[in-house]
Amino acid sequence: MNRICLAARLLAFVAIVMSGGLFADARAADPSAFTVAGVPVDATAANAVAAREAARLDGERRAIAILMDRLTLAADHGRLPRVSDQALPNLVRDFEVAHERSSGVRYLAEYTFRFSPDGVRSLLRNAGVPFTETPSKPVVVLPVLNSSDRATLWDDPNSWRDAWANRKVPDGLVPLAVPLGDVEDVAAIDAGRATAADPAALTAIAARYDAGDALLAIATLQPTGELLVSLRRVAPGGAATAIGSPTTYKPDPGEAQDAMMQRAVAASAAAVSEAWKRDTMVDTSRQGTLTAQVPVSQLGDWIAVRNGLTGIPSITGTELVSLAKDGASVTLHYLGDPDRLRVALAQHDLALSGGEGSWTLQRQSAGTVR
Predict the structure, then answer these.
(1) 58, 62, 78, 133: least surrounded by Cβ within 10 Å?
(2) For 209-311, where are the alpha helices, taking DSSP H only?
(3) What are the sequence ranges of the domains in the chain?
(4) pTM of the full structure
(5) CATH number 3.40.50 given to 139-280
(6) How far apart are CA 90 and CA 122, in angstroms?
(7) Distance between CA atoms of 291 and 350, rounded to whole angstroms?
(8) What is the residue-wise DSSP string for 36-97?
(9) pLDDT tens-digit profile of 164-202?
(10) Residues 212, 139: contact at Cβ < 8 Å?
């Protein structure tokens, strides 16, 4: 396609943008952040109807608690507002029910609740509790176990990988994917390349699971029975970010090794979640504006940027400033600071680069995740 034809098509497209408000939904929330799925309920009452109502209310109570824990730092959980039973229905946008079973006096089911983003935001802001609502792209977990001078990733036995695969704690804002360990996984990466954070190998395994980053969860089983765990989150082709300091887990009296590893996995997953929340927590009292150049070589580039900007909570508004045959200029109004904005954009496959007075916004290239 020649430049003149491209420019003409872009100008026609911009007419749609200007007349149809293509950016009008930029403040919409990611629905997954405010959805709590798989809440089991079990209630007994005088009759089936009463049991069902009691179960639903219990599910709502537990779901809102899960949601507020998900969006806030553990250090702030003691300050979370209490939601009365009367206020709860105003926060629930809708719900789904699965696996219903009932008798004359008992009701069992599994609920999925979708909460109102505006209602939950107001609740937390009024309580003065900071929060984030930016979901991470999936993170592929590479559980390497060091024992007896041997590093194991795919070979059995690897009780550390088993513990990750069987974890019971929900992911929250950071979906964690544990590889199957099949032939393709073995070809993509091994224990040595994982420990060394080999860029090509990390890119290959992340692509297999549609992941953004990889989590290098390196555990060393000590002769004493203790487990030393170090965590690094790595963008394929990028630098590794340590999550906390290496942590030693000691078996409790009478605790089996598998149980200790399950405990270490739960703590590790919580540390990953906390690190993500700290990185994406937005100071809503800070507002900024930046104008970025958007390189465009085909209509798909512009559409990718437009679609990516939709649904980022920290972006409060967007304006198309200008259009030329080789690109566009867009102004973003946002909450917080540019670093957190950059992380939020990356989760929507957009890369923000540059600095004050010279920003570039474009489709995210392979290997650029955070």
Answers:
(1) 78
(2) 257-280, 299-309
(3) 3-28+283-363, 32-126, 139-280
(4) 0.85
(5) yes
(6) 12
(7) 15
(8) EEEEEEEEE-SSHHHHHHHHHHHHHHHHHHHHHHHHS-GGGGGGPPP--TTTHHHHEEEEEE
(9) 999 987 778 999 999 999 999 999 999 999 999 999 999
(10) yes
